[in-house]
Amino acid sequence: MPDSRPGAAVSGTLRFVATYRGPGARRVGPRSPAGTHHTVLEALADPTRRDVLAALRAGPASVGELARRLPVSRPAVSQHLRVLRDSGLVRYEPAGTRNVYRLDPTGLGPLHSWLDGFRCTPSAREGTST
Question: Do the record's keywords include Transit peptide (predicted)?
Answer without folding.
Answer: no
